[in-house]
Amino acid sequence: MLAAEVTDPALRARVEALLTACAHCIDDDALEAWPDFFARTCRYRVVTRENFDQGFPLSLIYCDSRGMLADRISALRQANIYEPQVYCHITGPARIWRENGELRARSNFQVARTMAGGDTCVFACGKYLDRIVEENGALKFAERIAVLDSRRIDTLLVIPL
User: Fold this and answer.
1) 158 in any annotated domain
2) Which of 13, 88, 122, 155 is most buried, taking the most CB atoms under 10 A from its CB?
3) Number of H-type helices and E-type strands within the chain
């Protein structure tokens, strides 16, 4: 079945609201709420473009359940030692379509990272590839893949992208 662009303004607005709220959740350090953007059965990956294009499963981050997402945040808060930092997401407008009956979205992102000392850099850029489902009236990510343009991360990738 071919992909069909979503033209319904209300559905487009709901998808854009999901994408925006997820980015703001990370940027506002409300990470305990981040898993709530995902469906009960879900997958989250951060992968380099090189690995993604070649179909390699190796990912910088791989979580295949909402419980794994929550565990990642718990470890980040309690076990990981890293220099304090904050993110600022800049996301582009999403292309939204239905493919094989599933709602899909693709949006570009750039993440600026500011360290505790004030140094800011472009930490990551790439694209999000999302499969979105409705659960109890709310849109959720069934799958979110952050495909990084670069294969280099200059430090530990602690906070989700």
Assistant:
1) no
2) 88
3) 3, 8
Six token digits for residue 48 = 């380099």
Q: Is residue 160 part of a domain?
A: no
pLDDT tens readout for residues 101-139: 899 999 999 999 999 899 999 999 999 999 999 999 999
DSSP label of 115: E
Taking the alpha carbons at both ends of the chain, their separation in whole angstroms is 31
Per the listing, tokens 């709220």 go with 21
> The domain spanning residue 22 has which CATH number?
3.10.450.50
In tens, the pLDDT along 4-58 reads 999 999 999 999 999 999 999 999 999 999 999 999 999 999 999 999 999 998 8
Return all residues near 68 (Cβ < 8 A) that are at least 6 apart.
none
Residue 127: its pLDDT value, please?
Answer: 98
Q: CA 38, CA 57: separation in Å to the nearest integer? A: 21
Domain count, the chain: 1
Supply 107's token pair: 């949006």
The single-letter DSSP state of residue 56 is: -
